[in-house]
Amino acid sequence: MYKWKVVVTAVTFAKADPEPLQRLQAIGCEVITNSLGRPLTEDEMINAAQDADVLIVGNDKVTGKIIRSCSCLQVIAKHGVGVDGIDSKTAAECGVVVTNAPGVNSHEVADLTFGLLHMLSRGLHTANESTKSGHWLKPMGVGLWGKTIGIVGVGKIGLAAAYRATGYKMKILGFDSVKRPEAREIGIDYVALDQLLQQSDFVSLHLPLTNETRNILDDAKLCLLKPGAILINTARSQLVEYETLYKALLDGRIRGYGVDVYDFEPPQLHPMFSLEDVILTPHLGGNVIKLSKIERLHR
Predict the structure, then answer these.
(1) Is 283 part of the annotated catalytic residue set?
(2) Torsion sign across C-alpha atoms 138, 140, 146, 149
(3) In terms of domains, do 25 and 164 share one?
(4) Are residues 70 and 153 in the same domain?
(5) Does residue 286 form part of some domain?
(6) 164 and 72 in one domain?
(7) Confidence of residue 294 (pLDDT cuts 50, 70, 90)
(8) Share of the chain above pLDDT 70, in %
(9) Which of the residues 265, 270, 295, 296 is marked catalytic?
(10) Strands, E, within 20-83: which ranges?
């Protein structure tokens, strides 16, 4: 019987629960996991997967060169949702199936979104540091109750974030090319992006990265943000034009920026990262213990 070779580069695969690995092994697969604890480089991935049938990837970049170099490859499975790091066009040309698990981490990412929003709106991160250092500083915060939140990208994660916003009696504005019936049911008011940016106290990004959405918040759009707005990005860093955002934060036009995603991971240092009102997390939106079981059921 043919023994499938499965190469896993996703560093979180079976980390919290060994069952996914055990199930692959139980059906006779040879499974090679990532021992480096980081995404692989192009050459490392080619070397690891050149005779693999299946590639399970995390935040790795799967280039056309990788796909063409792995002649046995039949499936590329994203251990998560976003497939923008996979050259899907080359995969299709080579007859390689690309899969993902849409919606699997919706609630976890929405939780992180509101965690970042709470920290920035109340200055909890600075209060924590000052109190630990022996200072008794009480930053004046902004409440969430009754405010307006703009959800840019009303997919599964955007909807999950909107559900949480209803608990704070927020007015919810949404922007998306697809108008979902369930969005109306929870009170999302679809508006143009310009209107959303001008009227929202908080803006949360939940769009996939495509040619159309890359730098969707460019210089012109960022200038429309309501003074003192808070921007949360748990989607893709390339949705935002960084230099303009950096200037807006320096000028105090934007109250804060919470981000879980980066152009490169680990991220290259940027002066913006040292600002007090910028909170960074290491792309951990879906990193919760129970998610591993949910993902298997979803698939």
Answers:
(1) yes
(2) negative
(3) no
(4) no
(5) no
(6) no
(7) very low
(8) 96
(9) 265
(10) 30-32, 54-57, 75-78
**Tokens (6 digits) for 100:** 């993902």
> Of 79, 206, 236, 255, which is the active-site residue?
236
Of 56, 80, 100, the last residue of a domain is: 100
DSSP helix/strand/coil, 129: helix
The CB-side HSE value for 19 (13 A sphere, CA atoms) comes to: 11
Cα–Cα distance for residue pair 12/5, rounded to 1 Å = 19
d(CA 13, CA 16): 8
Q: Is 297 contained in some domain?
A: no
pLDDT tens profile 63-116:
999 999 999 999 999 998 889 999 999 999 999 999 998 888 899 999 999 999
Lowest model confidence (mean pLDDT) among 123-127, 164-168, 261-265: 261-265
> Model-level pTM?
0.86
Amino acid 293: pLDDT: 52
Is 107 one of the catalytic residues? no
Same domain, yes or no, for 122 and 264? yes
Q: Is 236 a catalytic residue?
A: yes
* Predicted confidence band of residue 268 (pLDDT cuts 50, 70, 90): confident
Give residue 67's domain range: 5-100
Residues 126 and 274 in one domain: yes
